[in-house]
TrEMBL record:
<dbReference type="InterPro" id="IPR011701">
    <property type="entry name" value="MFS"/>
</dbReference>
<keyword id="KW-0046">Antibiotic resistance</keyword>
<feature type="transmembrane region" description="Helical">
    <location>
        <begin position="390"/>
        <end position="418"/>
    </location>
</feature>
<feature type="transmembrane region" description="Helical">
    <location>
        <begin position="166"/>
        <end position="185"/>
    </location>
</feature>
<feature type="transmembrane region" description="Helical">
    <location>
        <begin position="256"/>
        <end position="277"/>
    </location>
</feature>
<keyword id="KW-0812">Transmembrane</keyword>
<feature type="region of interest" description="Disordered">
    <location>
        <begin position="496"/>
        <end position="519"/>
    </location>
</feature>
<feature type="transmembrane region" description="Helical">
    <location>
        <begin position="48"/>
        <end position="68"/>
    </location>
</feature>
<keyword id="KW-1133">Transmembrane helix</keyword>
<feature type="transmembrane region" description="Helical">
    <location>
        <begin position="80"/>
        <end position="99"/>
    </location>
</feature>
<feature type="transmembrane region" description="Helical">
    <location>
        <begin position="138"/>
        <end position="160"/>
    </location>
</feature>
<dbReference type="InterPro" id="IPR036259">
    <property type="entry name" value="MFS_trans_sf"/>
</dbReference>
<feature type="transmembrane region" description="Helical">
    <location>
        <begin position="325"/>
        <end position="348"/>
    </location>
</feature>
<feature type="domain" description="Major facilitator superfamily (MFS) profile">
    <location>
        <begin position="14"/>
        <end position="490"/>
    </location>
</feature>
<feature type="compositionally biased region" description="Basic and acidic residues">
    <location>
        <begin position="510"/>
        <end position="519"/>
    </location>
</feature>
<feature type="transmembrane region" description="Helical">
    <location>
        <begin position="430"/>
        <end position="447"/>
    </location>
</feature>
<protein>
    <submittedName>
        <fullName>MFS family permease</fullName>
    </submittedName>
</protein>
Length: 519
């Protein structure tokens, strides 16, 4: 039975461990974009290699994160979390010493595997360890401190790129892991998803209702039981489909037509096969019947739109500020900081507002504000001023993200049965990451960006402007979908535990709870 109190020494050690672990992945997701121009120059890499530097990580993370929680349920949450931290650190070391772009891309893919283990595992440890009266506050602190890590990321990444070098963006994870692992092994209790003994059955999941436990950690297990079979085939087909489509989009500019076409067709076939396997599997990774909720389906469509635009924006804007505006990596990273700061300060209040007025207005107005922010980025060119050109854009974008992220998460949770909240959150998080993956692959193609465009200020500027218009259009589509489909949830629905959130590339994960309304 989870009975660790937050105020106890052990509770503080558990919180420190989970914050360190999740911060590794959050830092990495925000700092790499700032380092891309320097990576390209040092490794003599073209734009496609830089796209793969971002997408190799997103590919394995998005493809495997739905499996992360169920692995912890089966083998032990602490054990899988520690494996994820060590895996991530070793892959980071490989990134830091990579002699060429090919090795860097392969190491980034390995990083994503580690991220898929430690990201859901960190929240799962909190849910499994803390007393139910402290769990909500522990989740809030974990989310808030993790958000601070995301906020520090671009600033720290820019400082490292301009100072010791871009390799330290990755090598920084090694000492963090060296602290995290021994603390986890010494202070964090092991737990898994095995059924509790009868005396503790009602309280083991923080519920006195006796409704049972649906395992899954933070990402949610779609297996229904920790002893069910892992959906390895489903995970493989899903990742393969994403990989083939991504390859086709990135290589379409210069790759052999036959190979690119074959990859695109094979990607579609793998996607169809993935759906077929999930429909027939007794223990699917992505249960198709969860999409029987029209609102859940609609909110995930909104998620695809907004996070595709965010992924494209943060990939291109850091390069635009360095290549076109002529700023240093530190200046470029710091310039985007207001978006994360606004989310940290205001996301909880945004969630409260959405509870009073319903999610439809925030999910409509939020994407439109973000679209306006991206259109304001059209002012950013050669000799751009931060105060006059960049700051207005990132402030408008930040307020738009504040308006939509918390209501989006709440609506996802409210759209399904309480027992499937973790599954729903995992699907939504994976959808956001997959959307960013496709955007990074597709935007250079759609805007006519050449393989060497990032080496030319004029060429990159032209493509960047077209990309911002496309991203704004995708956000507008998301706003229309939200306005047409989102409705006020039931008053007794599941409410988010993560009230404070700072990540700009994916919505927060939520764990499984069998208790109904969270106040």
């Amino acid at each position: 039975m989870p009975d660790v109190r937050l105020a106890s020494p052990q509770g503080k050690w558990i919180l420190l461990t989970t914050v360190l672990g999740s911060s590794m992945a959050l830092l990495d997701s925000t700092v790499v974009n700032v380092a891309l121009p320097r990576i390209g120059r040092d490794l003599d890499a073209d734009l496609a290699a830089l796209q793969w530097t971002v997408n190799a990580y997103l590919l394995t993370l998005a493809g495997l994160i739905l499996l992360g929680g169920s692995l912890g349920d089966h083998y032990g949450r602490r054990k899988v979390f520690v494996v994820g931290v060590v895996w991530f650190a070793v892959a980071s070391l490989l990134c830091g010493i990579a002699p060429n772009a090919g090795v860097l891309i392969a190491a980034r893919a390995l990083q994503g595997v580690g991220g898929a283990l430690l990201t859901p595992g960190s929240l799962a440890l909190i849910q499994a360890s803390f007393h139910r009266e402290d769990r909500g506050r522990a989740v809030g602190l974990w989310s808030g401190f993790g958000g601070m890590g995301a906020a520090v990321g671009p600033f720290l990444g820019g400082w490292l790129v301009d100072g010791p070098g871009w390799r330290w963006v990755f090598l920084l994870n090694v000492p963090l892991a060296a602290v995290c692992v021994p603390v986890a092994l010494r202070h964090v209790p092991e737990s898994d998803g095995r059924p509790a003994r009868p005396r503790a059955a009602a309280t083991a999941t923080g519920s006195g209702t006796g409704t049972g436990h649906v395992p899954g950690g933070a990402a949610g297990s779609a297996t229904g039981s920790p002893h069910a079979r892992f959906d390895v085939l489903g995970a493989f087909l899903g990742a393969l489909a994403l990989a083939l489509v991504t390859y086709a989009l990135i290589e379409a500019r210069s790759g052999p037509v036959g190979v690119v076409t074959g990859a695109a067709v094979a990607g579609v076939v793998a996607g169809v096969a993935f759906v077929a396997v999930e429909r027939r599997s007794p223990d699917p990774m992505l249960p198709p019947d969860i999409f029987a909720s029209r609102q859940f389906t609609a909110v995930n469509l909104v998620t695809l739109c907004v996070y595709a635009a965010f992924g494209g924006f943060f990939f291109l804007s850091a390069v635009q500020l360095q290549v076109v505006a002529g700023w240093s990596a530190l200046q470029a990273g710091t310039a985007l900081l207001p978006t994360t700061v606004l989310m940290l300060l205001l996301s909880a209040r945004s969630g409260e507002l959405a509870e009073h007025i319903g999610p439809r207005i925030p999910l409509t107005v939020g994407p439109l504000l973000c679209a306006a922010g991206m259109l304001l980025m059209l002012r950013v060119g050669t000799g751009a001023s931060y105060a006059a050109d960049v700051l207005p854009a990132v402030l408008v974008l930040g307020f738009g993200m504040v308006a939509l992220v918390a209501p989006l998460t709440a609506t996802v949770l409210a759209s399904v049965d309480v027992a499937r909240a973790g599954v729903a959150s995992g699907v939504n998080n994976a959808a956001a990451r997959a959307a960013g993956l496709v955007a990074v692959a597709a935007l250079p193609l759609l805007t006519g960006m050449s393989a060497e465009a990032y080496r030319s200020a004029a060429a990159f500027d032209d493509a960047f402007r077209r990309a911002m218009v496309l991203c704004a259009g995708v956000l507008a589509v998301g706003a229309v979908v939200a306005f047409a489909t989102v409705r006020r949830p039931a008053p007794d629905c599941r409410r988010p535990e993560c009230r404070t959130h700072g990540s700009v590339l994916a919505p927060p994960l939520e764990g499984e709870r069998t208790k109904g309304r969270l106040s």
